[in-house]
TrEMBL record:
Keywords: Signal. It comes from the Eukaryota. Residues 1-21 form the signal peptide. The lineage of its organism: Eukaryota, Metazoa, Ecdysozoa, Arthropoda, Chelicerata. The keyword Signal applies. This is Uncharacterized protein.
Length: 256
């Protein structure tokens, strides 16, 4: 599988990241790309990805939906501004694809009234009892950042794909455990989650998916661990963790 496909899987997870001091992707010498702004974007991305400690609660009625969609639009515009001002060409290209994915996905939630939108609104109160406690994305990020010290290059992508499998199983379990959801609500919520983090992963992960057992025996090689390389970034959302992983892959580049 060529490098552009590996790039796409990372974007499909809605994930980008940067190394604060020695990034090959971030214009760290520009004042508008300061750590303070990175941290602001980090929190903003966490809200856009909905679930987790810093996630964003669902709307439960049309008034809340109008405000939520306005917030999503404003945050996405701020993210795009940061991408244009602070990311170098390769990372900027990846991020714009990711932003497009978020806009396209959330358009379903924010567009004119549909059965899916109605069901998502109806399920909002139920989801909101757990939305900031659902830690599936945090677990994914924590597992992914542990890849940084390993000198296994593009093999890291296989592990990312398998961590993605674990994340989706985690979400399915969380939805099943919410007794206040009916089957349609579970299905529509899982569709929303998958469309945010899975679209391009399905295209690029090959056999390392939920439908195979390829992940069952995948182990990190202890002899490839470099203790001098660790994840030390203070920006830790999925958006940022994955670019840090990409930067840890020697000679990683987009083929054009």
């Amino acid at each position: 599988m060529n490098k552009i496909r590996w790039i796409l899987v990372l974007v499909g997870f809605a994930m980008l990241a940067m190394v604060e001091s020695r990034s090959t992707f971030i214009l760290t010498d520009k004042p508008e790309c300061s750590l303070k702004r990175q941290q602001s974007i980090d929190r903003m991305v966490s809200k856009l990805l909905i679930f987790g400690k810093y996630g964003q609660k669902y709307a439960t009625n049309s008034k809340e939906l109008t405000k939520l969609c306005a917030d999503i639009t404003a945050n996405t515009n701020q993210l795009n501004k940061f991408v244009v001002e602070c990311l170098k060409d390769q990372a900027q290209h990846m991020a714009k694809i990711m932003i497009y994915s978020i806009k396209r996905t959330l358009k379903t939630y924010c567009s004119k009234k549909t059965k899916k939108q109605t069901k998502l609104l109806e399920s909002g109160s139920c989801i909101n009892t757990r939305v900031q406690k659902i830690d599936c994305m945090d677990k994914f990020s924590n597992s992914s950042k542990e890849l940084v010290p390993y000198k296994i290059e593009n093999e890291k992508i296989k592990f990312i794909c398998c961590y993605h499998v674990d994340m989706m199983r985690c979400f399915e379990k969380q939805m099943e455990d919410l007794s206040c959801l009916d089957d349609d609500a579970r299905r529509y919520n899982m569709e929303l989650i998958k469309s945010i983090v899975t679209d391009l992963a399905n295209f690029a992960c090959g056999e390392y998916t939920e439908d195979s057992d390829r992940c069952d025996n995948l182990k990190l090689p202890k002899d490839k661990y470099n203790p001098k390389e660790k994840f030390t970034s203070r920006v830790r959302s999925m958006f940022f963790v994955l670019l840090h992983v990409v930067e840890s892959i020697d000679n990683f580049a987009i083929d054009t």
